[in-house]
């Protein structure tokens, strides 16, 4: 399952960026906790990636200790 940024969740990249900036952890720490690279995290924040695997999104949520409000229907 993939999350489509612009169409399904506009502004998600900015929301991730805002939460990261409020976090006491560095981007390197957050990216490592999410299981992605810092450049990939940057691309997500800038919404240069049109689709994001749900596992990656959940990793970002875990790293930021938040729920981004992206509900994916089961099935």
Level of helix content?
55-70%
β content, as a range? Answer: 5-15%
Identify the strand order in the major beta sheet: 1-2
SSE string: EHHHHEH
C-alpha-based Rg, rounded: 11 Å
Would you give an account of this structure?
- By secondary structure, the protein is mainly alpha-helical.
- Helix content is 56%, strand content 8%.
- The chain has a two-stranded antiparallel ribbon.
- Helix 3 (27-34) packs across helix 5.
Summarize, please.
It contains five helices and two strands, in the order E-H-H-H-H-E-H.
Present the secondary structure layout.
Layout: E1 2-4, H1 5-8, H2 12-22, H3 27-34, H4 38-45, E2 51-53, H5 54-64
Antiparallel strand pairs: 1-2
Helix pairs in contact: 3-5
Describe the structure using short key phrases.
75 residues, mainly alpha, two-stranded antiparallel ribbon, 5 helices, globular
């Amino acid at each position: 399952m993939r999350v489509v940024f612009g169409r399904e969740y506009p502004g998600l990249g900015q929301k991730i960026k805002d939460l990261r900036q409020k976090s006491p952890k560095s981007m390197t720490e957050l990216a490592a906790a999410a299981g992605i690279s810092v450049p990939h995290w940057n691309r997500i924040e800038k919404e240069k990636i049109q689709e994001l695997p749900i596992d990656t999104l959940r990793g970002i949520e875990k790293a930021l200790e938040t729920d981004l409000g992206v509900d994916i229907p089961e099935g």
